[in-house]
Give the backbone structure.
Amino acid sequence: MIQASAKNINVWYGDFLALKEINMSFEPNSVTALIGPSGCGKSTFLRLFNRMNDLISNFKLEGKITVNDKDIYAKDVKIDEIRKSIGMVFQKPNPFPKSIYENVAYGLRVNGVNDRRTLDETVERSLKQAALWDEVKDNLKKSAMSISGGQQQRLCIARALAVEPSLILMDEPASALDPISTAKIEELIFELKKEFTIIIVTHNLQQAGRISDYTGFFYLGELIEHDKTQKMFLNPSQERTQNYITGRFG
Amino acid sequence: MKKFRKIIEKFIEAVLFSSSTITSLTVILIIIFLFKEGIGLFKSSPLEKNYVIEVSKKNPVKELNATQLKAIFNQDITNWSLVGGNNDSIILFTTSNITDYYSEEELGSNLEHLNEKMGEFIIQHPNAIMYISSKSLPVGFGGHNVKVKDISVNDFIFGKQWYPTSEPIPSYGIWPMIIGTLMVTLGALLIAIPLGISTAIFMAEVAHIRIRNVLKPVIELLSGIPSVVFGFFGLIIIVPMIQQTFHLVVGETVLAGSIILGIMALPTIITITEDALRTTPQSLKEASLALGATRWQTLVRVVIPYSKSGISTAIILGIGRAIGETMAVLMVTGNASNIPHSFLVPTRTIPATIAAELGEVSYGGLHFKALFALGIVLFLFTIIINLTVEFVKNSGKRSRA
């Protein structure tokens, strides 16, 4: 079974070809890490799955992206409907300058859910899933800007979980955090895998090795190798992968 | 070489220090000058310099206030008993009606007998009140001086009449101008806020980058048009339009001032609001969109709340622009110093009054001081506005920290 897939993907920014002939698919309840040097196109690729690249004015796509067997770039698709089924966690914690409660409830509120009990239940469930509930349950009305960076990032994860997505995209979610907060996020990803499919962009190769089932190596807009993480790290079939993983370039 | 560089650095430092000192001193001196001249109004008698009010020695009235005096000379009060004197009618005598009593021969060709006649007059008319120059009082004058109460801050602010040149006693009541200024400003904001904020939202969030690149310079150009041109435009286009639409006798109204000021406040409101909207971090917008919010939901729930303090600043600075504007308002509001009871009557604002009258006053006179006192009131208005801007900015920062 396939949760999400990319077929024959070419992406242009104006005249610049950012991604070349990418084919990749993602199994349900798996964690796939996208690695590669800066500017290799891994973030662009990640952001194809919730159409975030549409915000860039000269962005052009060729190929087909499916999520839950649905072509999300088809003409009759409503972008905001698509985005509801896909959660995203960004590089830097970006909670809204609202209370902790309102941050988690945001996704429901924009969908027109205003029933107090539904909101309360969802907020509690999401914060528990994001392993933040015990730390903030007495301060739900407090501003989200007042908690620590690591807590903010888990709050952003809870916010993404609240709309019950099937796929979660993470764009270097721990790169702005200290080692302890990073460890918490990694543990969390391990837990979330039981219910969600996760694609994560990371610069940290150890992290990719610790948390992912599959790894894709991008280089200059091409997908060089995509395989089980263990195989990629111990016995890569491509020399460039070998060189990158052993730190010879990048 | 090293020494030379050190000297240059010292020199530049000295230049920077002295220019900043000169600038701050200039500002402080202007403020001191404004207050010195303006506050002088409240320590002086409302009578012209060297002029006095005299009555007969037999008359028990020792003191009058400005209102009583005005009523007497307007002949609204014609009996002494109404102002605490004996039951006797009042005879008015001023230097301008002197010929009612004495012929030119009697006074002499160079008025050499004037003082003498004054002395005579007060003895012949014990019920007279005289408004005369203190220099024309003879030795052994048979009258006594009536004290006139000084102008009070209360009379100045809440006085309803502005007759700065009336004789013998002028009125400096600025209440109609305060109300006029506030009404014109309020009207301007009712026009400029909805227009300005929607244009800013359009430019920041909706318009294609190419449209924005055309629109933004055009709007900034609007703030570069001299205000007298706006006034001219208002006088030629807006005023006749209002006159015809509402079938008025005169088109120079509060509304005309509001429309012109509204247009003039637009660039301030649009530019600052747009900048504020643009400071919303892309990451917050993306977070909202990624949760399935539409562009409008993102705008209403994330972008506008985030730029709240910036938008408030824009509005307050718009008020500041409108409240201090002089020329255009002077040209289109009709300059009638009465309290406007609707938007369709003429009015007069504080800055317009200063501009219209400062050219005709004598330096150091009461009218001159009254205009400076008006300047203080305007200055206090703008100080309040600026402090509010600071407060709003800081509270915005605090809520995001």
